[in-house]
TrEMBL record:
It comes from Penicillium decumbens. It catalyses: Release of any N-terminal amino acid, including proline, that is linked to proline, even from a dipeptide or tripeptide. It is an enzyme of class 3 (hydrolase). Keywords: Aminopeptidase, Hydrolase, Manganese, Metal-binding, Metalloprotease, Protease. This is Probable Xaa-Pro aminopeptidase PEPP.
Length: 464
């Protein structure tokens, strides 16, 4: 079996991706060419330094190139992929050194030839001429520089390509899965470093610093998203990003019970997205452990049913049913499990979707969510389709004790009766528990790409 490093020793399969996109474009007419541009170098306002660079994902998908200010053209009829790199700018060389040459780029990327960006218009005109001027050229609106011409093509389509690439990206090839596994492996090391740092940390930011340090040290400078390090009740805020509060409870002057860490690094544009909850005093408080056990069961049972063709709505519903069963057992909810499910009472404790596609974007393309859904249980579900083999999806159930969400339910004449406020009172301090893994869907099942520890005994052992 090939290892991650052996797979990644080859070139990123840009040509195969271009062919897949081109095949999908034929449904929209006689597809002749694809044209894409890389992200431009932009200066920070009132500064002569460039803004942090993030490559445009459609461009990377068809080139594997992380250079700014580049572009590409794919001649669909001739199956010829051309990468265009900026020519040498003597003034820039003084400050930044020599850029990648055309010869170096040709060896590095899975393309047929490399030219300079000054050759774009002539190359496009040559493609159109060879095809008799009867084919379509596809580009992305507002991502075509001034001066680029599509002369000779029958029509320029600007509204289709981005969505076609987005749909194509859902199914990952072996190289992409290896990139995602690499991001997960480095992120797992960083999560372990964060757990160890939490033993002596006095502030959320100290644990974040340990996580970031481990990522950079292992070759991943970029993060997939702004990481979350939420101590105690801060874990009830789904996208908490302050990461600057004390890990000591101001009222009791005792160590907060737990720390929710939602963080993952990016490797060659591919993302990891991992959430763990760790104890800050070596062991989980009783109430936090209760909720952790439910959430872990939610995740385990949902992952177990994954395979090609599974409807994601059904997996999300399964997570809610397991949450209901656990919360009834604790006495927080009362009533029959079916009635609680039909009344959507569990949404007050598990308000977000079970997960989302993962790839070059943390919330990756192709999920087709319906944020106007009248059913509150599914409104924030980011994937609304059957899962194809090759997709990578996050499985991130959670249970939260957020007064802003739960209080309106408590005050509801119809729904308030289903919550036992006396038992609930003991759980407000839990904040929130979320456990998130990244899972590759296969024809007959799945493979979990995430190795960060999550078993209670293992996490507590590392935290002591």
């Amino acid at each position: 079996m090939d290892t991650v490093d052996s797979i990644l020793a080859a070139k990123y399969p840009a040509k195969a991706h271009a062919r897949r996109v081109a095949e999908a474009l034929t449904a929209h007419g006689d597809a002749g060419a694809i044209y894409l541009e890389a992200q431009k170098t932009r200066l920070i306002e009132d500064n002569d330094e460039a803004m942090p660079f993030r490559q445009r994902r459609p461009f990377f998908y068809l080139t594997g190139c992380l250079l700014p200010d580049a572009s590409m053209a794919y001649d669909i009829k001739a199956d010829r992929l051309t990468l265009f790199v900026p020519p040498i700018d003597p003034d820039s060389v003084i400050w930044s050194g020599l850029p990648l040459s055309t010869e170096e780029a040709a060896k590095l990327y899975d393309v047929d030839r490399v030219l300079y960006t000054t050759d774009v218009n002539a190359t496009l005109a040559s493609i159109a001429s060879a095809q008799g001027g009867k084919t379509l050229v596809f580009a992305i609106e507002e991502q075509v520089s001034e001066g680029i011409e599509f002369k000779g093509f029958a029509e320029t389509k600007l509204s289709i390509l981005k969505d076609v690439i987005g749909d194509t990206r859902v199914v990952k090839d072996a190289y992409e899965v290896a990139l995602l596994r690499k991001a997960n492996d480095v992120s797992a090391r960083a999560h372990i470093a964060a757990i160890k740092a939490s033993k002596t940390a006095t502030n959320e930011r100290e644990v974040e610093a340990a996580f970031l340090s481990a990522c950079v040290a292992n070759g991943c400078r970029e993060q997939s998203y702004h990481p979350i390090f939420a101590g105690g009740v801060n874990g009830a805020t789904l996208h908490y990003v302050r990461n600057d509060e004390s890990l000591t409870d101001a009222a009791t002057q005792k160590r907060k019970g737990s720390l929710l860490i939602d963080a993952g690094c990016e490797y060659q544009t591919y993302c990891a997205d991992i959430t763990r909850v760790i104890p800050l005093a070596g062991r989980f408080p009783t109430e936090t452990r209760h909720i952790y056990e439910i959430v872990l069961e939610m995740q385990k049972e949902c992952i177990a049913v994954l395979k090609e063709g599974v409807r994601w709505d059904d997996v999300h519903a399964l997570a809610h049913r397991i949450a209901i069963k656990g919360l009834v057992k604790l006495g927080i909810l009362r009533g029959t499990e079916d009635e609680l499910f039909e009344k959507r009472v569990s949404v007050a404790f598990f308000p977000h979707g079970l997960g989302h596609y993962l790839g070059m974007d943390t919330h990756d393309t192709g999920g087709y969510p319906n944020y106007d859904d009248k059913d509150q249980m599914f409104r924030y579900l980011r994937v609304r389709r059957n899962l194809p083999a090759g997709a990578v999806i996050t499985v991130e159930p959670g249970i939260y004790f957020c007064r802003f969400i739960i209080d309106p339910v408590l005050k509801s004449p119809e729904l308030g009766k289903y919550i036992n406020t006396e038992v609930l009172e003991r759980y407000w301090g839990v904040g929130g528990v979320r456990i998130e893994d990244n899972v590759h869907i296969t024809k007959d099942g799945y493979e979990n790409l995430t190795s960060a520890p999550k078993a209670i005994e293992e996490v507590e052992s590392l935290a002591q």
